[in-house]
Amino acid sequence: MLKQIEGSRAMAEAIALCRPEIICAYPITPQTHIVEGVGALVRDGTLQNCEFINVESEFAALSVAIGASAAGARAYTATASQGLLFMAEAVYNASGLGLPIVMTLGNRAIGAPINIWNDHSEAMSMRDAGWMQLFAETNQEAVDLHIQAFKLAEEMSMPVMVCVDGFILTHAVERVDIPQQEDVDTYLPPYEPVQVLDPADPISIGAMVGPEAFTEVRFLQHYKQQQALSLIPVLADEFEDLFGRRSGGLLRTYKTEDAELIVVAMGSVCGTIKDTIDELREEGFLIGLVTLISYRPFPVDQLRDALAEAEHIVVVEKSVSVGMGGPLANDIDLALRNMAHPPRLHSAVAGLGGRPITKNSLADLFRQSLVQPWEGTHFLDLNERIVARNIHRSRKVRRSGPIAENLIRQMATEN
Amino acid sequence: MFQVRIHGRGGQGVVTAAELLSVAAFREGRNAQAFPSFGSERTGAPVVAFCRISNKEIRLREPVLEPDCLIVLDATLFRAVDVFQGLKPDGWLLINTNKPLAELHIDPVVQRLPKGHTVIVPATELALKHVKRPVPNAALLGAFAALGGQVHIDAVEAAIREAFAGPVGEANVAAAREAYDAALEQEKILTA
Fold it and tell me: Who among A171, A175, A357 is closest to B36 (CB)?
């Protein structure tokens, strides 16, 4: 059913359609509206056979989900930013135990300095935790990915994070087609666990594994994610057959066939990039986009195929690995490794802590990559004056104080 | 694509106004996208929300930088923030005030816009009269329906009723309808 609806509310309705049996949540901006929404659907009886558990922290939220999932229940939770960091230990446990929990991240920056706005830092902080990570471009895709995520998680016996840009998607009111319950029931059968804690038939899970088998356990985890590379497109195909629209999959191309420059990005910024591409193509700039949906598992072969013919790749990403640069660019580099004539890779970090990514800045960036390529990581729309002043100041003064507060003070005096 | 930027203060219903406008456009079969400026909003602090309306799918996620229409819920904001930034030369300006336009000291902006594209409505007064609370958003949306033909007043009224059931919805609809009539009348005079 077509609705003009807030992204969070649409996701809540989609999650309810997936018939989770346990939802545990602790509020954190910008994810809160999602679990509030599902909570309301449990309370008004729309979502039956589901226990909504208010817990005392994010660590408890995921721990309860782990217990519920191990006992055979379909379990769901959501978090963002510092909330994900607080549950970090449980994040690794959920994947290590092979529990098919689905968790939404309303992607938000990590402090300090405290920042409630969108970027992908927290998702990146858990990219090696053994969860699959899917990024939504629109609220329609966010809805559809949740339905696919439960099936993917349960088929692979492995947890999935659905990453949704905080505020930009979670708080946007737009047109979303909410699927019918009977279609979701057809697509997503009831959860049949591959392992279950049952007092009648006791087993233990999560026992200690020593050096004699730990490598093998990790290998099998890695192997399973590689297997998921084959399953994710199949689930997207099945979804398309049943619901009549394409959502999910490993990646999506836009005008890449004849492109000399291909942009690679994840999440909602891809919409702005597509509009930018259309305008640049009117000037004769042969440019296209690869939207990466599955960040973990990382589709190396599929990316290589999609990018091989281009001369330039610009990676636009909303996170920075401090001391290294853009983590997505680094991963894309892996996909291009060992090619005879790899495209030239340009790395750009944009949209940190909620800074708007505009068409104008993107168009300048893409043009610049051809005529005046940069070395290393480019920070889009960096205020170079304020940065230079701070570097200069901290060189002169030993006790120069906290960077964040100094910057804010400087900017205030300049205005 | 028609882009609206709404300026107001926390508590005036700025974000709700953008959402209602998107629902009204949606009801007329158009694509619409509403989103807030994502601050840590507080009552009385300047707040901005955006709405895009288009016949095609809306992919753009940047804030509205060059609005086709500015809706200003609080005229004291002219002294606090750069409300007019990016307003298109043929754009519309809709202001909530009970003062004459001349007393707002924004003549240079008004003169840049086409004749009849600046409309003032005493939306807070209308809200107090009908809704009994100083929430000018619904009334301004009614006035918006009188400008440029982006959404019909019927769709605005339906969107208001969808969001607010019962007497509260009807009171807001009454405020919107009166503001719509006032804006139409004003346009007639200004463009005569």
Answer: A171
Q: Are A268 and A165 contacting, i.e. CB atoms less than 8 angstroms apart?
A: yes
Q: How far apart are CA A297 and CA A232, in angstroms?
A: 9
pTM for the predicted model, two decimal places: 0.97
Cβ–Cβ contacts within 10 Å for residue B44, how many? 11
The pLDDT assigned to B41 comes to 67
Average pLDDT, chain B: 94
Residue from B16, B48, B57, B61 whose CB has the most chain A CBs within 10 Å, to mutate: B61
Query: Does A4 sit within 8 Å of B22, measured CB to CB?
Result: yes
Task: Spell out which residues of chain B touch residue A353, defining contact as CB-CB under 8 Å.
Answer: none
The pLDDT value recorded for residue A411 is 87
C-beta atoms of B31 and A359 within 8 A: no
Cα nearest neighbour of A356 on chain B: B62
In the three-class reduction of DSSP (H, G, I as helix; E, B as strand; rest coil), residue A281 is classed as helix
Name the closest residue on chain A to residue B30, using Cα atoms.
A175
Tell me the chain B residues in contact with residue A271 when contact means C-beta distances shorter than 8 Å: 58-61
The answer for residues whose C-beta is within 8 angstroms of residue A196's C-beta and 6 or more apart is: A70, A71, A72
At residue A346, what is the residue type?
Answer: H
Q: Are strands A102-107 and A22-25 parallel, antiparallel or unpaired?
A: unpaired
B contacts of A415 (beta carbons < 8 Å):
none
A356 touches B at CB < 8 Å: yes
Look at residue A186 in the predicted model and tell me its pLDDT: 98
How many other β-carbons are positioned within 10 Å of the β-carbon of residue A226? Answer: 12
Largest CA distance in chain B: 44
Q: The complex's ipTM?
A: 0.95
The answer for residues whose C-beta is within 8 angstroms of residue A402's C-beta and 6 or more apart is none
How far from B111 is each of B90, B94, B115, B116, B117, CA to CA, in Å? 11, 14, 8, 10, 10
CATH number of B2-191: 3.40.920.10
Two tokens, residue A12: 């809540």
Q: Does domain A2-243 have CATH number 3.40.50.970?
A: yes
How many whole angstroms separate alpha carbon A298 and alpha carbon A251? 10
Close Cβ partners of A315 (under 8 Å, ≥ 6 residues apart):
A263, A264, A265, A326, A328, A329, A332, A345, A346, A347, A348
CA nearest neighbour of A164 among A327, A326, A6: A6
How many Å apart are CA B9 and CA B152, to the nearest integer?
Answer: 26
Listed as ranges, residues in chain A with pLDDT below 70 are 415
Could you tell me the strand order of the sheet in which A251-254 lies? Answer: A251-254, A287-292, A261-265, A312-317, A344-349, A377-379
Which B residues, 23 through 52, put their C-beta within 8 Å of a C-beta on chain A?
Answer: 23, 26-27, 31-36, 38, 40
A271 touches chain B (CB under 8 A): yes
User: Which residues in chain B come in under a pLDDT of 70?
Assistant: 38-41
Answer CATH for A251-379 from 1.10.340.30, 3.40.50.720, 3.40.140.100, 3.40.50.920: 3.40.50.920
Q: Is-contact B91 B70, C-beta < 8 A?
A: yes
